[in-house]
Amino acid sequence: MPSHPMPAVFVGHGNPMNAIEDNRYHASWQRLAATLPRPKAIVCVSAHWETRGVYLTGAAQPETIHDFYGFPAELFAVQYPAPGDPELAAHVAGLLRETEPRVHRDAGRGFDHGMWSVLRVMYPQADIPTIQLSLDTTRSGSGHYALAQQLVSLREEGVLILGSGNIVHNLGMFRFHDRTAPPWATAFQQKVNALIRGRQHAGLCQYESLGEHALLAIPTPEHYLPLLYVLAAQRDGDVVSLFNDEVMSSLSMTSLVIGQDVQL
């Protein structure tokens, strides 16, 4: 057992090109990995795996999924051959059964870009056993949080709980040629940040009620919900460190680490 619990991390992953471009987000993910203890294994909750019911990847060697279009061939050529961990998947399923009696394991599911676009930068050797946990579309924010609370003990086992999404995510309003954040996007991100710092998790679970800007910031919940899986891992006394705290047009890159003070 590690002497200190493994931190938990939420990353605003943004554009898939961040996986291969030499930019400030790519560099920050590299620095983050150098700052964190090395994980024994990783459990990732990505915005890009939605299911009806709770699913875990179950393959020993999951494939790399290129679940996007319109990007350069260089991005489609990326492979992230990290090993899966069927034993860890079984262990996580056992932890979740208190809240979800039926947890499915999908032996054919690969790693989506919400996971590998971040991890190939953090851990380029792809040598850390990794599994993904799906987002059950039948659950409310509070339901996701309650499920995630069953995973807190993984931190004591040296397992990195990683959420990958974006808090503000409205691609329909994104302006490619003017990245200035509209006031509503900045105001919403600042509200969420204040609630995170104040550990007001109940309010964050009820994201639909976070004021007039909530529906603009979260027109669909899949990019927001991974945040709740990381917040649920917070324990009394855990410090919370924000990084990449900026909004580009209608997309926020705000990220955070729970359980370790990081300066990136």
Radius of gyration, Cα only, in angstroms?
A: 17 Å
Which CATH-level-2 architecture?
Answer: 3-Layer(aba) Sandwich
Number of strands: 10
Could you tell me the CATH topology label: Protocatechuate 4,5-dioxygenase, Chain B
SS-based class = alpha/beta
How would you write the strand order of the largest sheet? Answer: 5-2-6-1-10-7
Distance between the termini: 27 Å
- Shape type: globular
Beta-strand residue percentage: 15-25%
Low confidence ranges: none
Major sheet, described briefly? 6 strands, mixed
Mean pLDDT: 96
CATH class: Alpha Beta
Order of helical and strand elements? EHEEHHEHEHEHHHHEEEE
Tell me the number of helical segments per DSSP (H or I, 4 or more residues long).
Answer: 9
Number of domains: 1
The CATH superfamily label reads: LigB-like
> Share of helix among residues?
25-40%
Family: Belongs to the DODA-type extradiol aromatic ring-opening dioxygenase family.
Keywords: Dioxygenase, Metal-binding, Oxidoreductase, Zinc
GO molecular function: ferrous iron binding; stizolobate synthase activity; zinc ion binding
EC number: 1.13.11.29
Polypeptide structure, described:
- By secondary structure, this protein is of the alpha/beta class.
- It is 29% helix and 19% strand.
- Strands 5-2-6-1-10-7 form a six-stranded mixed sheet, sandwiched between helices.
- The radius of gyration is 17 Å and the shape is globular.
- The mean pLDDT is 96.
